Amino acid sequence: MVEAQRSGEERARLAAALRVLEPVLPADLVSVLRDAAGRGDWELPAGLPSTLEDRLVLAHAALDHHVRNPNLISFSGLEPGPSLSTSANKIIREFHDALVGGAPLDESATPPGGALICFGAGLHIPLLLNTYPTRDLVIVEPHPGALCQVFADHDWKPVLDRVTEAGGRLSVVCYDNPAVAAMGAIAAVRGGNIGLVDGSRVVVGYRDEMVARTANAFLERRVNLMVYNGYVEDEDLLLGFAGRNLTQGRALTLGRSLETPAAMPAVIVGSGPSLDASIDALKRNRDKVAVFSCGSALLALLENGIRPDVHCELEADPYIDDILRYSAAGHDLSEIRLVAANTVYPGILGYFAGAALCFREGTLASRILGNGVEPLPLIAPSCTNTGASFACAMGFEEVVLCGVDLGARAADRHHAASTVYDRVEDYNAFVGEDRVWMQPKSSASTQFNRQVAANFGGEAYTNDDMLQMRTAFELLTAERGRTRFVNLSDGVRIDGFEAVEPDGYLDALATPHRTPDAALETVFDRLAGEGAGPPIDPARLERFLELLDEWESRAVAVFSHAVSYGSAVGLYDALSPLLQPDETAARSTDLWEACRYAHTGSLMKVFHYLRYADARLGEGDRRTLLTLVEERLPPAVSEMAAMLRRRIDAIRSAVGR
């Protein structure tokens, strides 16, 4: 770090910049920078030169490097293979076949716009804005001193004006934790013009270890940029299951953190290959920990003589019921408690001693049926995430992952022994031919096509789905600052979790003053005392249907005039108020926001293809594309809305019985 007492002029320029940028900067960052401006003693990272002249030279070098070696983010919107599982995929295929007969579009074309994502603040940022058209500007800087200097070096009002006039926004992310900063950058891009991500540019401004680690963390996690929420088909299914689970009256509803002290660790058990090496230590120390089995780990634990205290499920697919039925054929599940999203397949509740359900964050079911119950955050995308989030909400101050590999270390292993993956033929014979879903798993190296840092050194095989799970775990650690997080799994490293060998950790635990079962009894007794949660409100269902009519009418009007907008970007600007979230809305209760959310995934995925194609087509083909939108999207929107109306009518009937 380079530290010097800044001149009064520099301090005044920084103060002026903060007055301009304060509306777009996080309040805590403004406080830090304003304090630095008052003292005038901010530090510069070693990679950022100490003189303005040298910083200008560095800025031009960074621009030149990016021009010669552009780092672009591109999304085609096309599913690999012939998948037609959703209405969005079907529409995209129709458009693509009509435009180019299924042939690939020209990947060499660079779409205009997108976001400019700068790791390391510097004077290259104004130069980049002059060189490339962009909408959103995201500055990710781990060193507050670098922000102080760069804000003092340049007049930032023209920068802010340029971004704002283009319909975008300027965001600044300043954390010294690479994973947290990377996820902050992803949130900034998704929260601005997510529909214009294609063509975004990633630029590193100066040489610095922390800046480089943050940029790498972002690139490794960038799959999270395009996690679609609000597929109509999925939301319709989840809404139906939640309605059934909430009206049958068997489940307790966990809607907030209980903060019930539990003087023992909660061990979240997944079915990754490393569970095999941990199972003996877990068995030896069974009475020292509360055991949360997750998904297919249940059978592996039972086969090794370990009855979990809690079983965790997330998914709505009926195959979960098949796996539990298979497990129940050889083991008694009736003394195990279930914790799950209230959107799980309804049949699974009957296997367990009792069930605590939570509203799943972001789902249409939570928005419409929640009736004031707050969703429990970060329970997706895996049942292991469900287990960890539940454990935090239940008050466990130490959350431990065991067998949560998020991939595999060895190329020939993808799951632990004694899971259904280990006995595919027997499982398929048990469920019958009409229910078979599981085929023998290929090797881990084909299941997992990426390699990242492993928990105990070296690298692990993984894939984008597993990395999304890692992101949710990392966000949980950032949110739960008082909780200790430990990872005993020999798989993917998760920032925020201590890497500890399982034998040493488990054997060193002290015997708690009460049994795990007694600790969980307290939690479930408290839930039972609070009741099953508020009933479904028929008036909310009626109001949602009224707003859905309005939303459909406005969306159909936009799509029916697609040609008049001239381009995918023009269409996006017209459509954005109907899809983009309203940051001022109370998202868990606002029903207009629910209408937006219900269609966002389906229509935004279609839009990503429109944006991708639009940037790579000639003028005539662009008009053809927009004509296709006018023909296909209005009836598609109406079909989606009709699907939701049928589901709401079914729930109203169930509530009325």
What does it look like?
It is built from 24 helices and 18 strands. With 657 residues, the protein is of the alpha/beta class. The strands form four sheets. It has a nine-stranded parallel beta sheet. Strands 3-7-4-5-6 form a five-stranded mixed beta sheet, with helices on both faces. A two-stranded antiparallel sheet has the order 1-2. Strand 15 and strand 16 form a beta hairpin. The longest helix is centred in the last third of the chain and has 38 residues, at 619-656. The N and C termini lie far apart (70 Å).
Q: Which regions have little confidence, pLDDT < 50, spanning 5+ residues?
A: none
Q: Kindly provide the radius of gyration, computed on alpha-carbon positions and rounded to a whole number of angstroms.
A: 26 Å
**Beta-strand fraction estimate:** 5-15%
Biggest β-sheet description: 9 strands, parallel
Q: What spatial form do the alpha-carbon principal axes imply?
A: globular
How many extended strands?
A: 18
- Would you tell me the structural class of the helices and strands? alpha/beta
Residue-averaged pLDDT: 87
Helix content: 40-55%
